[in-house]
Amino acid sequence: MTAKALVDIPADLLPLILLPPLEVLPDARARGAECVWGGEPLSTATAIDLGERKTDGGHWFPRACRTCTRRAVLAARTSHPGMCEQCTDDATLCETRRALHVLALELRR
Ligand SMILES: [Zn+2]
Ligand SMILES: [Zn+2]
After folding, report:
1. Ligand 2 geometric centre to CA of 1 (Å)
2. Source organism's superkingdom (predicted)?
3. 30, 39, 50, 48 alpha-carbon torsion, rounded to 10°
4. Which ligand is nearest to the CA of 95?
5. 103 Cβ contact partners less than 8 Å away, ≥ 6 residues apart
6. Which ligand gives the minimal distance to the CA of 83?
7. I want to staple 100 with a disulfide (CB 3.0 to 4.6 A). Which of 22, 50, 77, 93 is the partner?
8. Which ligand has the minimum distance to the alpha carbon of residue 94?
9. Which ligand does the CA of 71 lie closest to?
10. What is the mean pLDDT of each run of 10 residues along the chain (109 residues)?
């Protein structure tokens, strides 16, 4: 896969973006032909890569549409401070929280 997605999600943020469990997904979503969340058909021009995800005994490469990705990034930003020591201490200094915020803004365009 060499096609460049419109928005690149930084690798360290990918694990924070929660996906539906692979077992319940239709084949087209599991292989990245459709949005992993909403099932919208994707093209290389619109798909956002969600990186390589590991499962028991395998790996897959989910992709998603911009709208669903943005929703998932916002959810990650909302839930992040609850599991982050830096945010408990001083959220303004948290790089992760800021990176999620910037990513959500980028996806809005
Ligand atoms: Zn979608
Ligand atoms: Zn944080």
Report:
1. 32
2. Bacteria
3. 130
4. 2
5. 7, 9, 10, 13, 73
6. 2
7. 77
8. 2
9. 1
10. 66 94 94 96 91 89 96 96 95 96 92
